[in-house]
Every structure is written in C-alpha cells, then in structure tokens.
C-alpha cells in the first residue's frame, strides 16, 4: 500500500501541474496531460483491477473536480445498452479518486451508501462529473483531522455521449484518517 500511496501523491502532483485544456498545438503540455491521466488510470487499475477490466477511466482531474467515463464496449446488457453495474462503477470510483487526490493518501475513502436512479437506457459510453468546493474539502479535512473521520455526499448526473441525462447517483462516503489516535 505504501507504493500506491506514493504513486497517488506523485500522480496528483503531475495532474495538478498539467493543463487540462492542452492540445497537440502545445505538444509538451499535451504530453504532460495525457501522461498524467495514463498514470492516474494505471494507479486505479492497480488498486481496483475490476475498474480496468470494465473500461473505466478518469477523463479529467483537478482540485475539487473529477470527470470519469465508462465505455459501452464490454459493458452491454442483454438488450445492448449499458449494463446497470457499469453505471454503478462509473458513479462510485470517482468519489474515491477525488478524495485521494484532494485529501492525499493519508485519508481512506469508504463508500457507505449509494443509490442510482435510471432515467433512460444509454446506448453509448457514459460520463459523470463530481465537484467538491474548497470549503467542502477544508471541512472534510478538519473533521477527519479532529475526529479521525468525516462524511460527505456526492451527487452525480450521468450522461451518454449525446449529452442525454441517463441516470442520477447519490453516494455517501466516509473518510478515515490513517493512524488517527484521539488526543486527550
């Protein structure tokens, strides 16, 4: 786990120093950005091999924000649209990614409860975006540092490639601070 914690910290620095809007017109910036996301997705695959096998990927990551994608390929159900478990995967993992990269490897995210509301079938890849304000991150850190744990909720809007709103997610997380011992 120490190796993964170290990789998370390093990849977080790479991502934070990359330009998320870089294109091939800025080749060095584009290489830094694409290399950063490749590293993030490799780390996720090491920690959760199921994510890689099911074509999950982080598309964008910056302080307080993550956008993720699940591919339709390999995740079709019996009638050709996205399998329900794939919706869950794309809506759940980004909360952990956001937590680890915003709070650091000394805080462990744990999913406590999650609900999905399916609105219509997705016949393409699906994306979801989550954000935490700087104030929310500061509050999570303050709670975890003082009590050893903190709670937060992420609500997601899942969209297909055409921008159709296909599902909603609500995920309740708890963060635990590693090595916490109460003072007093």
UniProtKB/TrEMBL annotation:
CDD domains per the UniProt record, alphabetical: PaaI_thioesterase
Listed name of the protein: YiiD C-terminal domain-containing protein
Species assigned in the record: Marinobacter daepoensis
InterPro entries: DUF4442, HotDog_dom_sf
Pfam families: DUF4442 (PF14539)
């Amino acid at each position: 786990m120490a190796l993964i914690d170290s990789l998370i910290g390093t990849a977080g620095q790479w991502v934070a120093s990359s330009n998320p809007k870089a294109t091939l017109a800025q080749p060095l910036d584009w290489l830094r950005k694409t290399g950063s996301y490749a590293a993030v997705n490799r780390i996720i695959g090491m920690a959760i091999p199921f994510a890689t096998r099911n074509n999950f990927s982080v598309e964008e990551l910056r302080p307080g924000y993550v956008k993720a994608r699940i591919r339709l390929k390999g995740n079709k159900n019996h009638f050709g649209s996205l399998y329900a478990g794939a919706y869950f995967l794309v809506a759940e993992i980004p909360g952990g990614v956001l937590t680890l990269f915003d709070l650091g490897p000394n805080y462990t995210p744990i999913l406590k409860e999650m609900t999905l509301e399916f609105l219509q079938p997705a016949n393409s890849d699906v994306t979801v975006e989550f954000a935490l304000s700087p104030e929310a991150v500061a509050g999570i850190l303050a709670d975890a540092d003082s009590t050893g744990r903190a709670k937060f909720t992420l609500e997601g809007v899942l969209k297909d490639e055409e921008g159709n709103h296909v599902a909603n997610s609500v995920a309740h997380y708890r963060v635990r601070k590693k090595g916490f011992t109460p003072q007093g």
